[in-house]
Amino acid sequence: MQTLLRTIYDDVKPLVGQGKVADYIPALASVNPHQFGIAIYSNQGELFQIGDADVPFSIQSISKVFSLTLAIKHYGADMWQRVGREPSGLPFNSLVQLEYENGIPRNPFINAGAIVVSDMNQSRFASPHYAMREFVRRLSGNPDLKTDQVVADSEYEFRHRNAAMAYLMQSYGNFENSVEEVLKSYFSNCALRMSCVDLAKAFNFLANKGYCSISKEQVISEQEARQVNALMATSGMYDEAGSFAFQVGLPGKSGVGGGIVAIVPNRFSICVWSPALNKVGNSSAGVAALESMTKHIGWSVY
Amino acid sequence: MQTLLRTIYDDVKPLVGQGKVADYIPALASVNPHQFGIAIYSNQGELFQIGDADVPFSIQSISKVFSLTLAIKHYGADMWQRVGREPSGLPFNSLVQLEYENGIPRNPFINAGAIVVSDMNQSRFASPHYAMREFVRRLSGNPDLKTDQVVADSEYEFRHRNAAMAYLMQSYGNFENSVEEVLKSYFSNCALRMSCVDLAKAFNFLANKGYCSISKEQVISEQEARQVNALMATSGMYDEAGSFAFQVGLPGKSGVGGGIVAIVPNRFSICVWSPALNKVGNSSAGVAALESMTKHIGWSVY
Amino acid sequence: MQTLLRTIYDDVKPLVGQGKVADYIPALASVNPHQFGIAIYSNQGELFQIGDADVPFSIQSISKVFSLTLAIKHYGADMWQRVGREPSGLPFNSLVQLEYENGIPRNPFINAGAIVVSDMNQSRFASPHYAMREFVRRLSGNPDLKTDQVVADSEYEFRHRNAAMAYLMQSYGNFENSVEEVLKSYFSNCALRMSCVDLAKAFNFLANKGYCSISKEQVISEQEARQVNALMATSGMYDEAGSFAFQVGLPGKSGVGGGIVAIVPNRFSICVWSPALNKVGNSSAGVAALESMTKHIGWSVY
Amino acid sequence: MQTLLRTIYDDVKPLVGQGKVADYIPALASVNPHQFGIAIYSNQGELFQIGDADVPFSIQSISKVFSLTLAIKHYGADMWQRVGREPSGLPFNSLVQLEYENGIPRNPFINAGAIVVSDMNQSRFASPHYAMREFVRRLSGNPDLKTDQVVADSEYEFRHRNAAMAYLMQSYGNFENSVEEVLKSYFSNCALRMSCVDLAKAFNFLANKGYCSISKEQVISEQEARQVNALMATSGMYDEAGSFAFQVGLPGKSGVGGGIVAIVPNRFSICVWSPALNKVGNSSAGVAALESMTKHIGWSVY
């Protein structure tokens, strides 16, 4: 496996830096685009890594999977009354889609859906971000995971579009808490800093029938773990979920920090990271690395 | 397996007839809703069946997978310049989506996409419907498969919405042949009559790395077969693809005739059929049967 | 004229109460639907009135014309960089329209447009609502006009949809002040209480080439007055502007409190009021009364 | 008046040729953009003209007013069950608007609406284009008006988008005849060639309470004439109707051939023509000429 990782790494290295680092907030724009790391964690607890796999980065939308998992643990199947499970189609109609479907977002991985999930967690925890961070520290076995408060504050300052969606959902009665408070928790979750190694470990329960071998806990049931994977497979990669399924064939979730996690059910959890993004906001080198893995190992679930 | 099939059949039997038979054309509206069949075909050539698994029905949108396979055989990866691979979001905006994306339909399983695929096949075959029927006869090993011309004519008579989409694509230059001719081929393909047994056999190549053990041919490459499965997984079940992935976890394709095919990669191809449809147009009993299988056997790919 | 007013009043009286009083906030829902009044004020200072023409009611969206006039006085033609002058089409796409046109609302009479106009006035006045109320007291010659604080507070409590639009405009850079502060001013303006007589007087400057004969001031230029009338003619009646032009043929502006003002250029300003609304939110009896006037007097500008 | 016409002509002359001649079909693209004419016809039968006012050009969408008038003559108020009277908002959503409103176009001046009006006339006349041309010859007093068959054929060849709309309306049951036949009539109407003088005369009945002093006939009732003017005022100028009302203040109808007709109710009918178009498809010099008239003469109806 380590040899294979080296092959893939060398294959993709020339692409690193192609694309554009996220720049909608200054704190993200200053990241060095030439970083690139891969970590693979097996259900047996083996760790394989290469490149900048120990460098922490802003996990951004990858945090949506952790929030979702926390909400599933508490609300179970009831949570699907407030958020759908369907892919979302075009980005341009995110708001009209909320209108058309009476304030129920299409899935928990579009922003509107993740904000509703944050609202669910806000109703349950006194400090939802701390609860989430503790949860992720446990899953990854890394008690030192930190929140980048500069990033969180900067996201909040430019919250307007997300605030618009939250208020629109509130107008349909699909919101329980203060929009401002929920957005603060939501942005803090996005601003968590983790390395490829941290994320490969923290996501292993999804490859392992819901069981985390690091914290020795059944995080969610086997069926629920497969369901989270199914949601990642159909909606985890922004407006590229279909192409990603087509090219890579694994459930995956990306973030604008340049990280992508992917699950090989019953076997491995993977995290690749490189900050430069393609047009739809996924890591260019990250997608290429996962395509290369699929070609070399034939991991597609399909 | 046969015992299991009996359990599932008995589980789901009480649901048969719930919902509504497709009635947008008279020829489909008169089907008896109380029919229900299941067929499973293994990569080793074993056939398991129960109920009305030998009764032919109108395959409708299931034909889109055959047309797509024919187009892939001829055009390979080039075909993706004319049709996308992303899930499509809301049904209400199918036309605005075509406008927004310059006449390129989102995927080959929405009507606009399947019509473009038919246009590709029209450019290639003198008689595209006959070519397609011969192809399917070969895959299923059944030389007697027939087209229901009454259904095909009736669909053509009520072609207006599909004609609107075809003309809109033509206005963007994404159409090569006469709209009327292409629609005739397209509706003839939809009007093919096959049984659960026929379909389970004809779809086996997608479970078997692109190889059809009945006709002894490599239909498409292993990678292409996985890609077709990926497309079914993200876009095969109308506006229920996400829920189907969530609940069943298999690539699937449904038709308004009440049939659903599903693929267990590397192992089985399945066809369930019952004519009464749920709100989004998928067979109610069919979806229930596949959910029951997933629960009993744990076939989810995720 | 007074005889004519009696004829129209008797004609329309049977329709009074048909439709539904606005009930999205409790404070409006409790209004007696059987009230009906008409006031006409001529450029020569003659007042004609009938029915409940002296009863104050919540002017609601009629206030948008006053806010617009204040903004025109200060910003002149520059203001049209931040808000358009085109009719808005379907209500369902108000948010997607803002997205499509980069946060520039179509006209100052849809909510998004009126909120941007309020934002302009917020940048200019320390207390924009008091400035507006003083302005209207002067135009109407009634120093006792009051704001219904219960209505204003209730609107603010249910501000979510308007807040969504304001935040969306802010995400496009078309907002200068705090969303919360601007909405408070906006709702206070809507909650002003005026009678038909007050409104007929306060709007007379639009019939009189921009000159208010009550306050003896040139409020805006003749050209600007005609332009405000043109905006009312194309966009003043929610999703009924076209029908209103077709049936009545006068520039008009309605509010969900049941009031409608209309302008007969160079001659009269009119206000009709009856709280029960038709499907698009205009006073049923009010529209009928204006249609009856047009039929009896031939006041259409077209 | 003739002096005034000279002033306006000299004012606007420097703008002639600015913009872009319609080029979606070759037959229109070859028109010399430097032509410019104005004709004014009074209700008393006086004719004022300047520049290229006798040169025939393709009337294009101006023909929609003639078709509408013919339909009103036959169907009266019943026709409004098949087409609306509201402005249409954004061009990008013409198709989704038809979907949202069940195949009823918003007004008779958008393409979908004009095509439905053509379908009405098709149901009534054996040769709807000849009927229309005879009607216009009578109104203008010019028996030599001709159809440019090259233009009509070319429009038909590029009919795809209009065909898409017609088929979509047919899918909603709002179409009575063959799509192909109706489009042929529709394009022939658009391809009629008339000069400014012809059009000023032919439109005079709308300024003259429905009476044509040339053919000595009451074309439609006074009320109907005002209603047609109201429709032009709210929807006659593509996506510039609001600005045109704001700047010019007259009911108007434009065509991509560069012509614009405008009505001064009870006094004059006007036609200006210059082929170069602004961004929304209205004659640049034509709009400027009408703005200049409004400034010099104060003809705004508002």
UniProtKB/TrEMBL annotation, chains A, B, C, D:
Print the keywords alphabetically.
Answer: Acetylation, Hydrolase
**In terms of domain of life, where is this protein from?**
Bacteria
Q: What is this protein called?
A: Glutaminase
Please list the reactions this protein catalyses.
Answer: L-glutamine + H2O = L-glutamate + NH4(+)
Q: Give the originating organism.
A: Marinomonas communis
GO molecular-function terms, A-Z? glutaminase activity
Q: What is its EC number?
A: 3.5.1.2
**Alphabetized InterPro entries for the sequence:** Beta-lactam/transpept-like (IPR012338), Glutaminase (IPR015868)
- What GO terms in the biological process aspect are recorded for it? glutamate biosynthetic process; L-glutamine catabolic process
Q: Which positions in this protein are listed as binding substrate?
A: 61, 111, 155, 162, 186, 238, 256
Q: What PANTHER family does UniProt report for this protein, alphabetically?
A: GLUTAMINASE (PTHR12544)
* One Pfam family here: Glutaminase
Which first-to-last residue range defines the signal peptide? none
Q: Which NCBIfam families match?
A: Gln_ase, PRK00971.1-1, PRK00971.1-2
Its assembly, as annotated, is:
Homotetramer.
Which family does the UniProt entry place this protein in?
Belongs to the glutaminase family.
| TM stretches of this protein | none
